[in-house]
Amino acid sequence: MKNVILISIDTLRYDAISCEKDKIYLQKYGLENFTDTPNIDYFAQHGVKFSQNLTTVTYTPPSHASMLTGLYPPKHGIRAFLYNKLPENIPTLYDIFRERDYKILLSIDFHDMFDLLDLTRNCHYLVRANDEELFGKIRQYKDENIFLFVHFGDVHPPYGESFCPPSENYHDDFYSEIEALGKRFGFKDEFRDKDGKVSRDKLITLSNKIRIFCEERAIADVINFPRYLNGVNKFDKGRFKNFIDNLKGIGVLDDCLMIITADHGQGPIPQRKMANPDITQKFDHGEVISEEIIRVPLILYSPGNIPAGKEIHTQTSLVDIFPTILEYSGISFNPNNIQGQSLKPAIDGKSIEDSKGYCEIWYHDRSELSGFLRKCKKAGRMLEPDYDTFLYQKCLRTPGYKYVETGSEMDIKDFDLPEREFAVALCRKLLGKVETESEINNILNRLKNNETKSELAKEYERRNYSRKALYNLKNDPYEEVNLLTKEMSLKNFSQKSDFTKIAKDLKSNMKLIESSLGKRVSISKDDDKKDMDKVADRLKALGYID
Length: 546
What we know:
globular; 20 helices; Alkaline Phosphatase, subunit A; 8-stranded mixed beta sheet; 14 strands
């Protein structure tokens, strides 16, 4: 395979492309005919589309780490947002293809966070949100083997805006939309100067005011859902088409493997599903692990190597991208060192097992993240995190069921915490909610009245029957009926069910994913990353290459 092209379209949900037949979530809003993505569809029609592909986390850094390493977040270590770099002893696709003499070219719109998390290491050239520069570099290396990773941020909020507009007036409709919404909601913000030139900072400020206005009034879904889909359509026929046309013109698509996917989706989130009880509603990502946000597209295209127009319904995961690319490229690897599986056998018509549908989400105060990112950029490195984060949810999904845990079990160390910190842990772990001041004061008062921490923990465990949940995805696609609580009612009427057994089996599989992969060869921090002989030695020691 001369060229490998991995494309990640940030925030692209699975059903936002028109070639996807399953529009059940769009139908609820009457938007099932709203999608129009002929350019992405082309690669599905001339390649293979996987209809049940899952992300591993519903925000950007960890899910991309899973794509690039074949590992779930508990293994590659990037979990909470901007918390940890990728460990040096975990190779990426860049490492493997560079050792095989490919030119490693990266084009990343959200380049700052990728840089900070070490998700750009060992590339030959990093293009930071500049398509013309990228095309120039591809032309420069077109006679060599190329591994190209492209990250597009156009579909991400605020919708309709591009990091690299392909035409001079590309943003005019976006400006007009924000201006009209601002006036409709009573905002008098002016984001143009006397000459009519747009100030992007002022525009984003107004866009954020509109977002918060809609969230507080629980209309974020009906306002922003069509705006989001329209932004996807615009991207497909605008920047994405321009990108593909240039690749065709350069000639790199003639002998290539192209993968099109996304890091997470975007969807309506009601208050009852969020960790923060103060927020009424969102149309967003990074808050929950609902189906609309964890399902993302996966399309593979390779003329002469992959059949055209095939759709596969086997459950897959972003961790499968790593081994699939290696197998199609003829690179042997040790399957014991990764958690994904190659999808080539399925494409060849053979039966494979459903991939393990593990996904997790950590809670973050989103208002603090942009400020923290600015501090990291200024320092040029990761900082000791100065914002709160905790594991909010994790799930194990099969094509039929999804087992979800919200919060977590109390640890023995939690009972040794100072009283206020214990109260916070009680709320976050056993209620699965961000603590309120009234809840904290209630716990502290009860501790003062000689109630024990153990007694409070038992009570809070009993209060939250929905902390562990099982959903039947076929009969209940919106995940509204927790079968584990339903089972309590059925038992009252002497009716039997297998819900608890199903949940236990899924929980066991979840623990296996989180458990150790076995002995790994550690890499010294003194290793020179630029010395490719050492990179090759590390890959061989880890069993990734022969």
